[in-house]
User: What shape does this take?
Amino acid sequence: MRLVLVLLALVVAPSGAFAASNFTRHNAPGPHAVGLRVVEQYDFSRGYRGETDVETGKPNAGERARPIQTLIWYPAAKGSGQGLTVGDYVKLGVTADDFEHPAAERAAMQAKFATAAVVTLPPERAKAELAAPMLARRDAAPASGKFPVVIYAPSFNAEAYENADLCEYLASQGYLVIASPSLGQASRGMTTDLEGVETQVDDIEFLIGYAHGLPQADVGRLAVAGYSWGGLANAMAAAKDSRIRALVTLDGSVRYWPNIVKQSQYLTPARITAPMLYMAAAPKSVEETAADVNRDQSFLAKMKYADLYKVTVYPYVHANFSVMFSQRLMPDSGYGAYDQGELSVANAWVETYVRRFLDAYLKGDAASRAFLETPVAKTGAPRHLLAVDMTKSAGAPPTRAAFAAELNRVGFDKALATYQGFKARDPDFEIAEPELNRWGYQRLAAGDTRMAVGVLKLAADLHPDSWNAFDSLGEAYAANGDKALAIAAYRQSLVLNPKNANGAAQLKALGAEP
Assistant: This one.
């Protein structure tokens, strides 16, 4: 018991008694106080633990649904809630996927876990870092109003609080930020494969659903931020969910895992229309770069249908984007060419670009949009700290949904010319004949005969050797009252397939000879 009390004292000791933290916050918080709520909940639609433990082989007791330790940073009423330290965040990691411990046992586990997190630091610095005060206050009263939502997806196997400083800063600027840990499909360990990243995509979607029940959440203004592995998961989530209106990617793996991008099949440039801010680490030398990470493979180089801001942060290596673990708790030997002061300054500019990007695209702030397009030398950033590359969206992507929207605008009778225009923009654009046939019959069933004629005529125009395309077109013409055109279509169907009994029967019904 004495050991537990000593460890707990280490976690919660006041910061003034020890050396200063290596990390310095340079950005003043926004106008809102910040609250933090921790919710231990389950996604009962998905399993997590198997019948037996994968390490001990013993039967698993307790809940086996997927645990979602949910951290919510939110604008709060000033003066309410309990102050938090770095140590308060760190100790959450021990129960990231295991909520079923009595209070005394949990406290002992948390103290031990926090001590292990700083084992590589000198004792005085370890005390200072764990005791450093944070901006948020636990369970503070929420501020009134509704705020844009940012879902934060952490890096590979990382804790939900790995970028607590950024999450707190955004909450102070009027955002509701929600995060959960990066867990594997069936255990704490994440896996570097498609199943692993899609598990995190599902976690993002769970948190979006959870946000709909929060009184402060304006889910109509939704962004997803992610670091490293989470910066692949957030892009995949956006490819599936058009409600995501902005993407923040901290040196995200959408750049570094082209094989998984390819395996997903659905993460394509045409399906990413949400604007993206990509905060990149300093470029590696050619000798250090993996063979499959180059311009030809890069997803970023292929993006065409979304605004893309790529901001390179020269003091940062990849790990530095996790401020909790690779700045606050980084061992003294971990600093490379840049010291802790320079990294803290760089972090302030990362926060600034993230906040300005979200203000521009979720709040419609014109000044922030102008800031994003301002040359770095005129932003006030230190010289040589950042480089910014910007590419603008080429417009609506050539997708089936965009094609239908364009036909709705110009008229379904212009389907062929519109299709050819989409094909000119992207040679890979294609709607297969069976899909056109299904689409046409769906419109027929809905009573939209003019739309059906447009779609099925497109099928016949694109596939002039298909008897079935002309047979379907004949039915659409007949339903639309175009008897002569229906007869011509059925006759062409019979030319292509003299055994088409339906075509012959429909011609007879129309009073025409085959």
The chain has a mean pLDDT of 93. Residues 287 and 340 are 27 Å apart (CA to CA). The chain has 19 helices and eleven strands. The longest strand covers residues 33-47.
